[in-house]
Design goal:
2 domains, Histidine-containing Protein, Chain: A, alpha/beta, 3-stranded mixed β-sheet, 23% strand
């Protein structure tokens, strides 16, 4: 008399007892301890440094971000409020000596529903208050992506306005459609 055994996996359910191909055992027959890969100690040290950097940063410590480091590539996971914070994390982590790359696992989430119009208004306020913009830069928002339009005097000014737009809640990406006009510097 054969005893009934629970299937090991969903694929085993179709195998009747006594089938020519036996079910796989749930327990491994031998326990083999794998050696840690070379450099894993260094990665553990880097992970600690990255994690500590995130926890000590006054702008990020409240988010409970988690970091891992494999082959000197850092991956940070968690949720932040704005695109600017997400970009700041990448900048902060990649500045740590020994970190050779970055994988972004950070999501942006806001409290409550924010419409594209809400995002547009918030970015417009930022742009209007910025001395570089001087009312010559506008924004349109579609599905959380902010498109900046107008003229700026330099590439640096463009980057500064993109950073300012990324601080608005609900922005998931900033796309520059700004034209660089060096003659604006004189006016």
């Amino acid at each position: 008399m054969q005893r009934y055994r629970e299937p090991e996996t969903q694929w085993d359910q179709h195998r009747p007892p006594g089938h020519s191909r036996p079910r796989e055992s749930r327990r491994p027959t031998t326990q083999i301890k794998a050696k840690p890969p070379p450099g894993s100690q260094a990665n553990d040290g880097l992970k600690g440094i990255v994690q500590e950097t995130l926890r000590k940063d006054v702008n990020l410590r409240g988010y409970g971000l988690e970091a891992t480091v494999i082959d000197n590539i850092a991956r940070v996971q968690g949720v932040v409020d704005t695109l600017a914070e997400k970009l700041y994390i990448k900048e902060l982590v990649t500045s740590i000596p020994g970190i050779e790359g970055y994988i972004d696992g950070v999501s942006i989430s806001t409290d409550g529903a924010i419409t594209d119009e809400d995002v547009r208004m918030e970015i417009s306020e930022e742009l209007d208050a910025h001395p570089i913009s001087r009312g010559r830069v506008g924004v349109e928002v579609c599905d959380g992506i902010a498109y900046l339009m107008g003229k700026v005097p330099s590439k640096e000014a463009e980057q500064e306005l993109m950073r300012a737009a990324s601080t608005a809640r609900g922005v998931i990406q900033v796309v520059s459609q700004l034209r660089i006009d060096p003659d604006m510097e004189q006016s």
